[in-house]
């Protein structure tokens, strides 16, 4: 456990005081293969609720990808572990208090990290079967919000093969190549 000073607060007497928060070690160093970072480090700090980013998106999809891990190729499983860790590590400043944010700002920051974490961990080198599994898990939520849509297109735009695959799936509706939901 790490104890860090939090920003000064104003008391009723207008005298600044410092609060100390106990920061679990996991919040400054997310554990590979774990999804508890979202509830224990982000939701416990921001209280965004069940539909907010920490629980409604971060933890939800972390758990969904973890549950489907065996459906990925070995390369896909490695990508999955590194990407999940990258997404959590990118939010350490928000989890530890180094950066202050609202729930909306936290979601904006989180979505802004998705494309880089996906691509930098090898999204472009995955097999189309792994891409299909990603789309099967995430489904149309890729396009439910502007931030999610933007992250999707940023990731695909950095990966010509993935962009071509998405185009083929949306135009040809090839059941052997693409998951359901592209029609």
From TrEMBL:
Output the superkingdom of the source species.
Answer: Eukaryota
Assembly mode:
Homodimer; disulfide-linked.
UniProt GO molecular function: hormone activity
A GO biological-process term: intracellular calcium ion homeostasis
UniProt keyword annotation of NADP present: no
Q: Give Gene Ontology CC terms.
A: extracellular space
Which species expresses this protein natively? Answer: Laccaria bicolor (strain S238N-H82 / ATCC MYA-4686) (Bicoloured deceiver)
What keywords are assigned to this protein? Answer: Disulfide bond, Hormone
Family in the record: Belongs to the stanniocalcin family.
Q: Which InterPro entries does the annotation name?
A: Stanniocalcin (IPR004978)
* Name assigned to this protein: Predicted protein
């Amino acid at each position: 456990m790490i104890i860090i000073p939090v920003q000064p607060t104003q008391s009723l007497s207008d005298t600044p005081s410092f609060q100390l928060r106990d920061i679990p070690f996991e919040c400054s160093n997310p554990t590979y293969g774990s999804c508890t970072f979202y509830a224990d480090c982000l939701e416990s700090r921001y209280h965004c609720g069940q539909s907010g980013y920490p629980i409604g998106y971060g933890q939800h999809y972390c758990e969904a990808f973890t549950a489907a891990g065996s459906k990925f190729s070995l390369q896909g499983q490695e990508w999955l572990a590194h990407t999940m860790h990258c997404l959590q590590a990118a939010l350490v400043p928000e989890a530890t208090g180094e950066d202050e944010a609202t729930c909306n700002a936290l979601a904006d920051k989180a979505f802004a990290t998705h494309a880089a974490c996906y691509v930098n961990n090898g999204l472009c080198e995955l097999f189309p079967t792994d891409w299909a599994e990603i789309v099967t898990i995430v489904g149309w939520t890729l396009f439910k919000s502007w931030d999610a849509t933007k992250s999707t297109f940023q990731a695909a735009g950095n990966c010509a093969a993935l962009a071509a695959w998405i185009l083929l799936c949306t135009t040809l509706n090839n059941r052997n190549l693409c998951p359901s939901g592209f029609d």
